[in-house]
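Internal tracking record. Fields below are filled automatically when a chain is submitted to the structure queue. Please do not edit lines marked as system-generated. If the sequence contains nonstandard residues, flag them in the REMARKS field before resubmitting.
Queue: standard
Priority: normal
Entity type: single polypeptide chain
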Amino acid sequence: MNTLASIFSHNSSSPSIIIPNGGPILSYPGLHGHIKVFQHELMENFDLKPQDVISIVLPNSLEFTISFLAITLLCNVAAPLNPNYTENEFKFYLEDSKSKLVILPKGWTKQNKDAVKAANYFNIEILEMNWDDSSKSIKTYFQNNSKFRENYEKRQSNPFDVALLLHTSGTTGRPKGVPLTHKNITTTMKNIGNTYKLMHNDCTLLVMPLFHVHGLIGGMLSTLLSGGTVVIPPKFSANTFWNDFLEHGCTWYTAVPTIHQILLLHPPPNGGTPKLRFIRSCSSSLAPHILFELEKAFKAPVLEAYAMTEAAHQMTSNPLPPQKHKPGSVGISQGVQVIILDDNGKPVEEGEVCVKGANITPGYINNPSANESSFTKDGWFRTGDQGKFDNEGYLFLTGRIKELINRGGEKISPLEIDSVLLSHPIISEAVSFAVPDDIYGEEVHAAVVFKQGKKVTEKDLQIFCGEKMFSPKTAYYSL
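SYSTEM-GENERATED OUTPUT FOLLOWS
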């Protein structure tokens, strides 16, 4: 079954969703039941045609989970949006997606939040929802008095229906709309389950936002497909993370490097020992020394993965032991074809990472020029990342094609410089970038944040980088 309905095809006895700190705990049949009730509300009160877009502006919550699955299983398209967007940002996304309905937390209309202003600007209907503890059910609130009475049970999604619409942030130009079908999403869900051998007795603590593929597909949906349990706090908090992790018997989590570094500074309380099977890192490059620190502190393999929105998240990942997981590498292909091509689409040793598979978006919405430039004639998707394989098939990313620093004709990867800077014992954060230069065209600059109470001179860092990367006589960095 290549639709999101496959989440409910197993016979798991594990809880599906846990809301920590006294929130509801739902079994799989219980979650499915609340989804059907919410689907009935949508079909009876709103004129929603198949493949109409519904925007979700909710924090990580049970409400988000129920609304997302209800929408996608009705053949409609869910468009999650960051609740912290400004009015103008909401206007852009609502207009670009042609959203027919906006789902908000209870009370937002009365508070005239930015999402409400944007929806009213386009006369888009609004539905508010919240979990009611007294009745143990979802409550809905809306202004529409029409009754449409379409039977939700007649709606059956097929694998090629679009289920999810997200936008790439991009470094230039307007964000591009990325539609993902049920088959795109379920392919990645299965791939992630296979990569990490997820089972019904696995439990993850969700720390990534559900309006992003990392949290939505990498964390929540892949776990639900395996019959496991997802613990969903409203947001990441280092002060409560380990308490929640230990209380609910979590076995793994997935996060960006920033969160990993924060957790290193906030170890489990009172010497508590989490039973981690593995830690997953994705969405940004993980410095090898952070990987080593995590493994030493938490006694679990740290597996870096490579993902992007257009691929419905994961493309490659370091595997579980006893297979190797290599610091600095994003691992091996995981159910996705990966190749390295040059500008002309010819295979090369080092060049642009290109991918192909059932997880790849069918193409950007309303953007033929982006589709033409992003897909080769034979269907490979160009990621925009530069990389190379080692002799064991592990992929190493060496930079963004458009972000490589061209210093006098020499292509320099910011990722490599960042990694070197982060290996310095006094630096906690670092980012390198190009600035215009009259002689070299572009010169390498970097900004760093020192660890608390520590400091090092600019000259010392220049020498440090030069010794690690180039001849000290020719290397120059402005910090």
